[in-house]
Design brief:
The complex is a heterodimer of chains A (about 375) and B (about 140).
Chain A (H helix, E strand, L loop, with lengths): L2 E2 L7 H10 L3 E4 L7 E3 L27 H19 L2 H6 L1 H10 L7 H7 L32 H22 L5 H12 L1 H10 L9 H6 L4 H5 L25 H19 L1 H13 L2 E2 L6 E3 L2 H11 L5 E9 L7 E8 L2 E8 L2 H17 L21
Antiparallel strand pairs in A: 1-3, 2-3, 6-7, 7-8
Helix pairs in contact in A: 6-7, 6-11, 8-11, 11-12, 13-14
Chain B lengths: L2 E3 L6 E2 L11 E8 L7 H8 L2 H8 L4 E6 L5 E6 L4 E5 L5 H13 L37
Parallel strand pairs in B: 3-4
Antiparallel strand pairs in B: 3-5, 5-6
Helix pairs in contact in B: 1-3
Chain lengths: ~375, ~140
């Protein structure tokens, strides 16, 4: 691997020539220390002059060609790197280093750990190359030594659920259970988490090992991408390999953020909670009031007032306009004794009345306590049962 | 139980609202030709120290230099999945630097022409509320 550091200024024009002659790619920001480097053909084999493109690697025992041997070397090198995730190689990956910077992760969170967060169990490459006669991919062919995000994901998922429920109940102590469940889902469902990870600029590895070999791509490029599918077989011409190991892109993306949270927690608990707040809870907007749906608002409000020892709610017409016209407007307020609980408008008296009751209920359920430490903690007696 | 929760409502992203801001530009590819005269400026740019400085100042952006025949192109890749290519043929290093700045500072969104009255865009409701003829002082004063 040829590396050129910032101090090697006189070599720059020479380097340009080198890059030109080998038509290589120059990558900046491979590691935090080095300014730039570009890869040469020392660790990876050269592009074969003639090759047969096959989605499934052929068994080496049957056919022996220099190209196949090169491919085998490439495959094993890649597999070794993915299994061990060496720090030196991870620091070389521009995608990993820049992602680390973009997220502002601490130094203890190494690029190797970040790469592990991007490795799903389904990306595990088979240890033995399947033969041409038997192209079944047996489960026993897969090693369990790969460092993946399986365990981190489980830990991260529990942490995330706990933090989200805590955040919501701190903010809205009277939130009814069905709405709470929906709100938790609105914050941490797979779709939302996947969209967050995509907004970090994480790409997924979509190319097969053969394609990567033909492009002469070093292993560190793969390390910086999300690996969730067994890329041994590629999708082409509408034909797709469906196996138990395969799962959706959305699910794979959501694994990344959960494992990042779990890894942060192992470094420092506060870092993890802050990360969750910044990226998932406080950093995103959710209008809780839009998650409510009332079936019988007036009846529910009456039961609530009864339970809380308030006077029976009475709806009163407060203002109206154009009763006999095409578009009438009624403003109805719902009162408990002298106190106004809620107000609603509508094109009919019935609609305005229902809206007023919904408004009053919403004010009860979406109550937010002040952050005053002297205030007593609110213990919700539960949702109203009609 | 009468209260129901409405599903399929998701939280909306507000980049930079918390203490985290994710830079929208994730990658810039600089494509140059070693032969063509239109690439002279970008060749000068690459040989000079400029890119080193830019890369060290923007550690969150990945830079890649590719040799390919044809006019030189710099392309920015953004977190929203879009990319922006800018052809930099016959440009001198200073002009190329300006184009790079444009790519690095862009959000990756398509260019829109906002109308004059569209200065404030917010997910939040108006603090003052919507004016209603039925509320407040209903008797007009002359």
């Amino acid at each position: 691997m040829l590396k050129l550091y910032g101090a090697a200024a006189p070599m720059r024009s020479q380097l340009l020539k080198l890059a030109i002659s080998r038509s290589n790619v120059w990558r900046y920001q491979r590691s935090i220390k080095t300014s730039y480097s570009f890869y040469s053909t020392e660790t990876v084999p050269t592009t074969p002059t003639s090759h047969t493109v096959s989605p499934i690697p052929l068994s080496i025992g049957e056919i022996q060609t220099p190209q196949l041997l090169e491919y085998k070397n490439y495959y094993q090198n890649l597999q070794q790197t993915l299994r061990d995730l060496p720090n030196e190689v991870c620091d070389q990956s521009t995608a990993l280093v820049t992602l680390h910077k973009r997220l502002g992760l601490p130094k203890e969170f190494t690029t190797a750990l970040l790469s592990r967060c991007l490795t799903c169990r389904s990306s595990n490459l088979p240890t033995t190359l399947p033969s041409t006669q038997n192209i079944k991919l047996h489960k026993k062919n897969y090693s369990n030594q790969q460092r993946d995000n399986y365990g981190l994901n489980i830990f991260g998922k529990n942490l995330l659920t706990f933090q989200t429920v805590k955040y919501l109940l701190d903010k809205y102590p009277r939130l009814p259970t069905p709405v709470l469940n929906v709100a938790v889902n609105a914050y941490i469902s797979d779709e939302v988490l996947a969209s967050i990870v995509k907004s970090w600029g994480v790409e997924s590895e979509t190319q097969s090992v053969m394609e990567r070999f033909l492009r002469n791509e070093p292993a560190d490029v793969t390390l910086g991408k999300l690996r969730y599918f067994n890329n041994l077989k590629r999708i082409s011409d509408g034909v797709e390999c469906i196996s138990k190991l395969n799962f959706s892109e959305t699910a794979a993306y959501s694994l990344v953020i959960r494992s990042v949270i779990a890894t942060l927690w192992t470094i420092d608990e506060k870092l993890a909670t802050r990360f969750i707040d910044d990226h998932i809870l406080v950093g995103r907007k959710l209008d809780i009031a839009r998650l409510f749906e009332f079936e019988q608002p007036t009846r529910e409000l009456a039961r609530l007032c009864e339970r809380e020892n308030l006077k029976r709610p009475v709806s009163r017409l407060m203002a109206e306009s154009g009763r006999l016209s095409k578009s009438p407007v009624f403003i109805v307020g719902v009162f408990s004794g002298e106190e106004k609980l809620g107000e609603g408008f509508g094109a009919s008296l019935k609609e305005a009345k229902a809206k007023a009751a919904s408004d009053a209920l919403m004010k009860w359920y979406c109550y937010q306590p002040t952050k005053d430490p002297n205030q007593k903690t609110v213990i919700d007696p539960g949702t109203v049962i009609v | 139980m009468v209260v129901k929760g409405i599903t399929n409502r998701f939280s909306i992203a507000r980049n930079g609202y918390g203490e985290s801001f994710i830079h929208p530009c994730r990658k810039i590819i600089i494509q140059y030709c070693n032969w063509g005269g239109s690439s002279q400026g970008i060749r000068d740019f690459l040989v000079s120290e400029r890119l080193n400085g830019i890369a060290s100042r923007h550690k969150q952006i990945e830079f890649e230099v590719i040799k390919k025949s044809g006019h030189p192109v710099i392309t920015g890749f953004y977190n929203n999945g879009r990319n922006k290519p800018i052809c930099v043929r016959n440009m001198d290093p200073i002009e190329i630097n300006k184009k790079l700045e444009i790519l690095m500072n862009s959000s990756g969104d398509i260019l829109r022409r906002w109308t004059k009255n569209d200065n404030v865009r917010s997910l939040n409701k108006s603090v003052r509320g919507i004016w209603s003829p039925f509320h407040g002082n209903t008797t007009p004063s002359l």
